[in-house]
């Protein structure tokens, strides 16, 4: 039997997912809100991508990783481990653009140096002064980049990037048959728009590097090679949990088990972390005045 795929759009966060029509979908894993039944519709266009990386971490292992993570952490409130309520765990295929390219950068600037100069004579002695001098510096470098740009409307770029690398070399040619029993997201970013984002990231990296080489950057040039681009579906477990009524989201790399998510922060622990060093400094200041 051929796999029937339906799509649904979340009215709350705007995420557009597709799913195996033999499975029911009641809730949006991205924001935790309930779906309205009339929003379901059959897929109008065929799903297309270049590659797919399938799940290696099964649901039971993902839950273990999540439970270990939620019960440990220095900054979290003490009752989080007891009070959190997991609202779901869904394996979702997230579309990502991958770009592999190289850049050539050239920069020019000035390096600041200080040297001792001769000052005025005061009371028979010559004052020591420092004189600033600027020396021209330039350089160039060639760097290779391998960047993922999520085409996801539900997850943020930060969440996908924090999951570290997805092993592209293990990916398979795309087929929608992999979506059996799973959910996926419709890409919301075209190749051209994703390429612009990848370029922005490379420019920012290269500019920081150039700025680290000189004290005053005056000229910065960058050239990009033609990128090799791939639209790939990557496996991500999305976990929702509630703590004192607030919804939090956690994501797990379905290939490597890397986890990333937001947690409530204990106000008491933060207050103590600020207070304790302040008290220590106060005591030290007091002691140095006393002795
Ligand atoms: Zn949603």
TrEMBL record:
Tagged with keyword Transmembrane: yes
- According to the record, the segments passing through the membrane are 270-290
Kindly state which keywords UniProt assigns to this record, in alphabetical order.
Membrane, Transmembrane, Transmembrane helix
**Protein name per its UniProtKB record:** Zinc ribbon domain-containing protein
């Amino acid at each position: 039997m051929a796999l029937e795929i339906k799509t649904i759009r979340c009215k709350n966060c705007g995420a557009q997912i597709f799913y195996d029509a033999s499975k029911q979908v009641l809730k949006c894993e991205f924001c935790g809100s309930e779906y309205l039944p009339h929003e379901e519709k059959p897929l109008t266009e065929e799903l297309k991508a270049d590659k797919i990386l399938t799940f290696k971490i099964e649901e039971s292992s993902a839950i273990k990783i999540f439970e270990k993570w939620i019960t440990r952490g220095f900054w979290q409130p003490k009752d989080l481990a007891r009070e959190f309520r997991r609202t779901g765990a869904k394996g979702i295929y997230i579309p990502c653009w991958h770009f592999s390219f190289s850049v050539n950068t050239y920069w020019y600037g000035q390096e600041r140096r200080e040297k001792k100069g001769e000052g005025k004579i005061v009371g028979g002695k010559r004052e020591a002064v420092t004189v600033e001098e600027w020396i021209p510096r330039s350089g160039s470098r060639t760097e290779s980049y391998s960047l993922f740009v999520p085409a996801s409307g539900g997850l943020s770029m930060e969440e996908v990037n924090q999951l570290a690398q997805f092993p592209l070399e293990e990916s398979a040619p795309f087929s929608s048959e992999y979506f059996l029993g799973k959910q996926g997201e419709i890409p919301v970013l075209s190749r051209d728009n994703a390429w612009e984002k990848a370029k922005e990231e490379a420019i920012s990296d290269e500019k920081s590097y150039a700025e680290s080489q000189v004290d005053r950057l005056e000229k910065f040039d960058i050239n990009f090679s033609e990128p090799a681009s791939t639209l790939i579906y990557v496996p991500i477990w999305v976990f929702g949990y509630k703590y004192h009524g607030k919804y939090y989201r956690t994501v797990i790399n379905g290939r490597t088990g890397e986890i990333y998510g937001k947690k409530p922060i204990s106000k008491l622990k933060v207050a103590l972390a600020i207070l304790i060093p302040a008290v220590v400094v106060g005591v030290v200041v007091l002691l140095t005045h006393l002795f």
